[in-house]
Request: fold
Amino acid sequence: MATRRDFIKMGSLATVAGVTAGMTGSALARTPDGLFKLPNGIGASSFYSGKNFEPHLNTVFTLGHEDLKNPVKLTLTDVRDTLHKSDTLFGRKTKSCSLVFEGSKGRKLKQDVYQVDHETLGKFSALLVPISHHGNQYEIVFTRI
Reply:
């Protein structure tokens, strides 16, 4: 199981590159030279911002994982953009986007990297972390530098 610490150890730039490279479907297209391009000229820093996810509050995201027999549906319940004034990476202030999801109380998902699918945003990979003791609230955080 990949821990959040392991995921962060890869480095913010590698994480953004990895998450972007893991995207498929309507959210991302491969250019003739083999590079990935976000739709409508959206850059990775714009895609992974609260501004992009806020219009999709209270909509359903479907998560897939190799350990799941069937995909799991989670509802996006909160979106927050944060500028970390005290945290710096490579001498720059960091920004993060936090997405909070709620699922059914009967099913608990483990912390791991999942394939996330949304009918408008398309598909991407992200680290999902349980944040409630009841096991039905989860968070995905994108850190941008």
